[in-house]
Amino acid sequence: MSNVDVRNSSLQVKGVSKAFGSNGSGLLALDDINLDIPPGEFTCVVGGSGCGKTTLLRIIAGLESGYSGTVLLGENQVVGPGQDRGLVFQEHRLLPWLTVQENVGFGISDLPFAERSERMQQYIDLVGLRGFEQSYPHQLSGGMAQRVAIARALVSHPQLLLLDEPFGALDALTRMRMQQELLRIWEAQRTTMILVTHDIDEAIYLADRIVIMSPRPGTIKRVFSVEMRRPRDRTGNQVAELRKSIYREFFTKEEVPEDYEI
Amino acid sequence: MSTAQQNVRLQNSKGVPFAVPRKKSVERAHVAKRLVTDKSLGLIVPVAGIALWELLSRVGVFPPNALPAPSVIAQTIFDLGKSGELWKHAGVTLWRITVGFLLGAAVGTLLGGLTGYVTIARKLLDPVLQSLRNIPSMAWVPLFLLWMGIQETSKIALIALGAFFPVYLNLSSGMSHVDPKLIEVGRVYRLSSLQMIRRVILPAALPEYIVGLRSGLGLAWMFVVAAEIMGASRGLGFLMIDGQMTGRASIILASVILFACLGKMTDRLLESVGHRLLRYKAQ
User: Fold this and answer.
1) Paired sense of beta strands A209-214 and A42-46, if any
2) Could you tell me if A180 lies within 8 Å of chain B, comparing CB atoms?
3) Is the CB of residue A167 less than 8 Å away from at least one CB of chain B?
4) Number of domains observed in the structure of chain B
5) What is the predicted ipTM?
6) In this structure, how many other beta carbons lie within 10 angstroms of the beta carbon of residue A101?
7) CA B164 to the chain's CA centroid
8) A132 in Cβ contact with A56 (< 8 Å)
9) How far is CA A73 from CA A11, A53, A83, in A?
10) Any residues with CB less than 8 A from the CB of A102 and at least 6 apart, and which?
11) Residue B13 domain-assigned (yes or no)
């Protein structure tokens, strides 16, 4: 289990740009993105639709090709998907023909049986699904299915967990409960996490750092450090202040230059 | 998590983490009662029909040489069984079905898998196979007889042809329409092509494949009748023709019933295999 020890590497995104459309001439989805994420940090990337936040996450996950710039995890350059990065999608994407347990163990089929079983149980316990090992995905609620997806992503001990709007499809109350759960898991595992969301409150509740992105072209507009102690009071003054300044980033004079397009 | 929660069975509770256990015994009794009434309702018409048929035959409304009474048909089947004729003919037919179906399904699986996974193979082969499918099946019979003679080979080939197309079509479309989002999960976990096929694509295509196998089997039964009518010295189809030649309607009807029973039996076999494989879908 030596891969647990090497968890302490930082993520560096250096000058990443990506264009969609024929031979790169089209829309710039990402324009010169630079990001430095220290190990163990919880980063939230916030932006409206089309700001390239999901593309950025997919590049880090190794699912996109045809971009310029580099992504480094520790010493290693990211060239494709790898066991050092776990990914949770907006939809749970569990394989419907596998049980909860088999889904959790999907990415560690190369481990010896005993170790694999132990790990699967460990992560099923971590996400609070003991007793549901033999259930099939269609028998689970949305929140439970997303817990399984988180366990599946964490079971191979990644250095980095990437979450692409993981709670976007859940109802508001379940979403808040899942945010608490995710914090608890983060505190227990200390895996570096990058969560992409359009929900400002979610970012304020979770993140050490909030990266605000703006669209056309996709750029990093501003980075907020959140110094508040956890658990954070969602209705407290500090949260309200921060929310106000983040809102200001989205809805102010910056929108005016758009008028030139007329 | 407490043991109490472990014992709770899930009932697809959207948004609610743990479903409240329902009063199972009451519910099961209710369901059972409904099933029984459904089944018995469906039986009323056929049972009444057979009774009426028997009655009208006995009174002499139906001429016995054209439409014998159900009891006469039952007696015919019984006699055929006692003399050993039944087992001989049914055995031959079952053997043809088995070999023909397995052959057709195997080729269908091979080509379906190939065209379902390899895009270039689909572009090359699929249009040809799709256009061959438009040829009415019986149109092949003279050619098959010419090529392979009147013996077993041509019959097996015809049955295999019948089984081939549904298996091919369903597997091919099942494999090529796997949810790209699940394929991407496979990519995240760096599955090799073979692992991707085994762990993602095939399980995802399995429901369609089983539908293909079942309709392939259905067509195989259609084709075996055709093949045995065309020229055979044994088999249930031959028995039918024999009944027609010798003017014994009871033999023809007995064969029809035997065909129906055997067809249903083999389908149930496939259905139960499919049910086991797809048990994850059951509630």
Assistant:
1) parallel
2) no
3) no
4) 2
5) 0.87
6) 19
7) 13
8) no
9) 5, 18, 12
10) A95
11) no
Let me know if domain A9-84+163-252 sits in CATH 3.30.565.10. Answer: no
Are B187 and A130 a contacting pair at CB < 8 A?
A: no
Q: Is the peptide bond before A231 cis (omega within 30 degrees of 0)?
A: yes
Q: How far is it, in rounded angstroms, from Cα A234 to Cα A146?
A: 22
The closest of B251, B227, B229 to B159, measured between CA atoms, is B227
Same domain membership, residue B141 and residue B54: no
Q: Does residue B5 sit within a domain?
A: no
B185 to chain A, any CB pair closer than 8 A? The answer is yes
Asked if B84 and B204 sit in the same domain, the reply is yes
The full set of domain ranges for chain A reads: 9-84+163-252, 91-157
**Closest-CA distance of chain B to residue A233, Å:** 24
Domain that holds residue B194: 70-281
| Alpha carbon distances (Å) from B103 to B10, B164, B265 | 42, 8, 20
Does the residue B10 lie in any domain? no
Q: Rounded CA gap, B212 and B167, in Å?
A: 4
For residues B57 and B151, membership in a common domain is answered with no
pLDDT digits (tens, 9 = 90+) for A202-242: 999 999 999 999 988 899 999 999 999 988 999 899 999 99
Mean pLDDT of residues grouped by 10 in chain B (283 residues)? 42 42 57 68 91 92 89 93 92 96 97 94 93 86 88 92 95 95 95 94 96 96 90 89 91 94 94 91 72
- The reply to whether B42 and B139 lie within a common domain is no
Q: Tell me the three-class secondary structure of B89-106, residue by residue.
A: HHHHHHHHHHHHHHHHHH
pTM for this prediction: 0.81
From the candidates A97, A126, A167, which should be mutated to test the interface with B, based on the most B CB atoms within 10 A? A97
